[in-house]
Amino acid sequence: MxxxxxxxxxxxDEAERRALSDTRPVDGFTRLLPLNRLAALRHQIxxxxxxAGQQVAAKVVAVLAGCLxxxxxxxxxxxxxxxxxxxxxxxxxxxxxLWAAAWQVRCTMKYIPAPAELRLICEDIRRPRHxxxxxxxxxxxxxxxxxxxxxxxxxxxxxxxxxxxxxxxLEARFFEIFGDDAPMPxxxxxxxxxxxxxxxxxxxxxxxxxxALADGEVWAAVLCRRLALVERAKRAHAxxxxxxxxxxxxxxxVVSGENTARRLVEDIEPRIPAYPAGRRTRTLWPAVRxxxxxxxxxxxxxxxxxxxxxxxxxxCLRQSEALADTRAVLDRQAREQWEERLQTRQTxxxxxxxxxxxxxxxxxxRQDNExxx
Length: 373
Prior knowledge:
This protein has helices at residues 14-21, 35-48, 53-67, 79-90, 95-108, 115-178, 187-194, 209-214, 218-238, 244-253, 258-268, 285-294, 309-322, 324-348; strands spanning 199-202, 205-208, 298-299. By secondary structure, the protein is mainly alpha-helical.
């Protein structure tokens, strides 16, 4: 005879057991088990949930019939038919659930229960396993969502890298076209931060300073260099390397003394942060407008400060749209906490009223004052 090799059951540690028995929905903040671990657990649960069959069910019924009393004839008219039909009703239940239900019945009952009662006991025994299976399915779906999100982020990063490579190739051409007046490496990306679309009017025509830069127009190179200087000063201020007054003064000096402004920016960038970081200056827009007007360029659709509160509100709304899933998770967590506190308060609330309940002893009656919390 060839011995049958049985699979060893998977042992769960405490963290895995808590994660799989958690009834809360799986979301972007849930700590997931590895996919191979989830697949192994799903396979094990599928084996455990396999129907026992009528032979195993008949053994379980025989054990119950040998240990418990049969209800009287006023309850079961034909006891032999009752015992003979029970295995057919219980055959679709798992083996371990049937034996666990039989042990529970033997410990708690004196008479053989109806098949429907045994099925309910089996369902109660299987409920933790069903919850574990639902969590495994949710975790596998979340793995897929996170994989898709990672793929989308990789595609976006690849697109950004392609754009950076295009800018590097474009900047390599600038030295051939403009010579010493060419924008510095990285200036196009910096200037694009202040002018995302690059669209505007010049000489009564719709133009894009980036397209004009690629075409070799000198005014676009000057505009790119100067906008990049302002953006460098702005980022230095955001990092706490310069005060707001110093940043505004550098931005205002760009038109009249570009080389001086460049030297000032290069002086502040190696500094150690000495000012509050993360603060945005809100008065650079006039300097940006002066730079654009000096080049004969008038930006489209931005007649006001892009750093004013209204523009900031629009940016916040756009960021909120991108964080819709996170906001939904936080809202759900806050709602669950509120419902839990409300339920706790309702269960612990003392009786308040004009008439005491009929079953409440008079000595134990306590009416709350309206001023009590």
